[in-house]
User: Fold these one by one.
Assistant:
Number 1:
Amino acid sequence: MVQIPEQPFSLADISEWFKLKQELAALKTKEMLARVNVFKHTFGLNPDTKLEGTNNYELPDHYVLKAVTSLNRDLEIEVLRAIAEELHTKFNIVADDLVRWKPELNLPAYRELCKEHPEAAKFFDQCITAKPGTPQLDITLPKKFQGKGDLTPPSVSEQIKTPF
């Protein structure tokens, strides 16, 4: 894990983070639009373009533009259940051989277990690995201030003591 060095903190840090967040969102959108445009005009017009896999486009001076394409597939569980028997009967194919069932923690049930049966929860914890995720930040304006003109996040450089 990367150690983040200790630094003094001020409201200016919040303003800087918020400004960078806005710039990053704008850059992500611009990059995605540019990427789609480049793909469309280099690979999209070529009938040999693969829907899945790597496509190459020759550039000057021996450079190659590579596009890795994919198809996102979602499994319709109810349809799978409805056709599984017929798939097996007609084609001798077992539907479960085509599907990977991924166990996932039912968090509301787990939290209820922690509350109602802490000893059982502690026993169950043997099969759980928990690690902190990256925090998500956002700046919101309380409803009572909405519609009161263009309010921007604070940019005060006053030092704030952090609780940690």
Note: The radius of gyration is 26 Å.
Number 2:
Amino acid sequence: MSALRNRLNVVIPFSVLLILPALAAAQQPLESFVLQGSGTGTANGGGVSAQGTSKTNLFGPTTFALTFTNGKDLGDVGGGKGSCSLENGTVQLTNSQGTISLLEVGMACNATNAQGLNTFQGTYQVTEGTGRFAGMTGTGGLTLGLSTIGPEGSALITISGILQSGS
């Protein structure tokens, strides 16, 4: 019996040593993600759309395209100076390595209640990836600024958060 116990005392720890690298490989590290970009966009009573070029800290140059739909109108922010509404929509980030799709929710506000600055601030969740980004997960925040409401104007975007590779 003691010979069997001694053998198990050697075999079991050795087996654990063989399994640990496989477990570590299965768990990909979390990576801090930052994107900054510029382009053009339009905001109107139905929502916001924008597209342009951007650069990320993790995978270089990308293009972005987003569409947000107006939800509940939150009303005037006071003194006739602007209004806000809830928004939801999608963002796609694309480069030669693949595409990352984000689901976005947040709030859009215009600062002047006229043809002035429009801003969107929200949170995102990665919903899909293709190519190198297949199986990617992640979450974070997005800020978008448009130079005008109505006709197409300039757009500035920043996205930051945490991503985890799917492979």
Note: Strands lie at 30-44, 47-56, 60-76, 83-95, 98-110, 118-129, 137-146, 153-164.
